[in-house]
Amino acid sequence: MVDSRVPSPITNSQMIVMKLLSFSLLSFLFTTAIATETPKEPLITRIAFGSCANQSAPQPIWDAINEFDPQVFVWLGDNIYGDIRKPNRVIGKERTIGPWRNSPRFVPSSEEEMKSRYAKAKANPGYSRLQRKTRVIGTWDDHDYGLNDAGKEFDRKVINQKLMLDFLDEPLDSPRRKQAGVYASYTFGPPNKNVKVIVLDTRYHRDPLRSDGSFLGDTQWEWLEKELRGPRSEITIIGSSVQVISNLSATTGPLFYMESWGRFPKERKRLFQLIEATKRNGVVFISGDVHFGEITRYDCAVGYPLYDVTSSGLVQSVEKVFPRPLRVIVRLLFWYTPTTMRVINGNCRYRSCTYGQQNFGAISIDWNANPATIRLEVRDVNGVTVLGTNVSLSTLQPQGLKDSTTKGKSQRYCTLEVDLPGTVRYRLAVLIYFIISVLAMALLGLIVGTVLTITACVHKCKLD
Ligand SMILES: *[C@@H]1O[C@H](CO)[C@@H](O)[C@H](O)[C@H]1NC(C)=O
Ligand SMILES: *[C@@H]1O[C@H](CO)[C@@H](O)[C@H](O)[C@H]1NC(C)=O
Ligand SMILES: *[C@@H]1O[C@H](CO)[C@@H](O)[C@H](O)[C@H]1NC(C)=O
């Protein structure tokens, strides 16, 4: 609903003064015909994004983001951790995990607590510095929506929407404050070099997990269709809090499942069909949520490759949860888990082409190249590229795949994870269950051995 053409770091009042000055100057020097020309929108060449920022932990990543100097920064959710996580307890009065669970592991915070957490996040010096010079936009995910894995049933969504929009400095008269959900769209850049950024709300209207119901809700779907049918843009970036292309759950289940568009296959198909039906070219997805970085690509959805650049988290990362010596095991497991959509190339820090430490997403557009190219990256806390791929804008349209000389190679981005042969698809689960059974058997062997030794000894001792 919100469509703003934003004049970059310059404040509105400065812009008005500049507009007035240039207008009067031009009218003075030239004829009024020339004077009616509007000032040029600045060209957008650098966009950064990120997700999962724990407001209570140090946030060194902002230095790297400020260094990258983006013109636009997109929050992709878990912008704060608003809910309260209770400790993991299998026994005791409040049991939050295990078969005897009697208490939820996450509970929502009060409004006051949410406000104070947002205030803390906003006061972070690195983030404040970014906010002063960069246009900051975004959406939310579950923890800032207010509750882990929550959807449309969550009853604090109205008040939390207000708090989230306050955090983003949304104007008080913005239509976004009156709609149900925080979805929005923006257009940046001069004509013929337009970058449209759409941020979706994947929480407010979402049916429960495993319901195979709606992901966006009717109103947001209608809005999205209008946005995609609307004025053309060279590049359309669609921000979704959860991953669009990667369906990790298909290869980590039955061990564990993640939230993603893949969990709502009908809705995901609808999204792809909408992009195709509206003939929207140049679409690139950005996403967060999973606490690691990954670039994926799907070639068989809309007639051109759909990329999904996942950056997560700015602060919360999978490797941080493990002691340093165990982190290499996490990387090995990433490498061992099968994937069909992940972009694996020479630009990755690790063999798996995932990145499990603090990171942010960086999109650089080279409009001078012919055809224009987009560099999609995930960068580490020092601003160094840990995942990256260059995409020519000309490949992000229906004839792109046909012209591509790598057609044969790109076929591998067409197999869904669920269509992998069982021996490959479940190899992580098989490995983990195998390790658990070996350990269990070793433990059993140890117990039996000890018992036998003791009985033998007791027997022998008696005989003696
Ligand atoms: C956020 O960081 C604080 C301080 O390091 C930590 O105590 C807390 O558990 C973290 N929150 C989450 C959700 O991990
Ligand atoms: C993603 O994986 C889940 C879990 O295996 C499965 O139910 C779902 O159908 C998959 N989605 C797609 C689009 O393949
Ligand atoms: C990708 O583009 C960047 C500039 O945007 C360039 O420095 C780099 O060499 C390119 N990489 C590849 C693999 O083409």
From TrEMBL:
The residue stretches assigned to a coiled coil in this entry are none
The record's keywords, sorted A to Z, are:
Membrane, Signal, Transmembrane, Transmembrane helix
Domain (PhoD-like phosphatase metallophosphatase): residue spans on this chain: 48-300
Q: Which Pfam families does the protein's record reference? A: PhoD
InterPro entries assigned: Metallo-depent_PP-like (IPR029052), PhoD-like_MPP (IPR018946), PhoD-like_sf (IPR038607)
Q: Which residues cross the membrane?
A: 430-458
Q: Does the keyword Protein transport apply?
A: no
Cleavable signal peptide:
1-35
- Its domain of life reads Eukaryota
Question: What is the recorded name of this protein?
Answer: PhoD-like phosphatase metallophosphatase domain-containing protein
Report the source organism. Microthlaspi erraticum
